[in-house]
Design a protein that fits this description.
By secondary structure, this protein is an all-alpha fold. The chain is built from 3 helices and no strands.
Length: 74
């Protein structure tokens, strides 16, 4: 059984609904995504002293990666 996924178009619509209909700022969504990514990395590592490499390009997911790096560093 594979992981469920959404298309780029579906995710764009989710983002639009969150910002326009629910008035949730993009920055907050990015912060929460990065926070949860950092939490998942810690949970999967089973080691509080792990090293992590975060690669964040220029696309929309870069902000979440940068937030995760900041959270893991602290």
């Amino acid at each position: 059984m594979g992981l469920p996924g959404v298309t780029r178009e579906e995710m764009t619509e989710v983002d639009r609904i969150m910002v326009e209909d629910f008035k949730i700022p993009v920055e907050l969504m990015m912060e929460l995504a990065g926070f949860n990514l950092a939490k998942l990395a810690l949970k999967l590592s089973n080691n509080n002293y792990s090293n992590y490499i975060i690669i964040a390009g220029s696309g929309n997911n870069a902000g979440g990666g940068i937030v995760a790096a900041r959270r893991l560093a602290s």
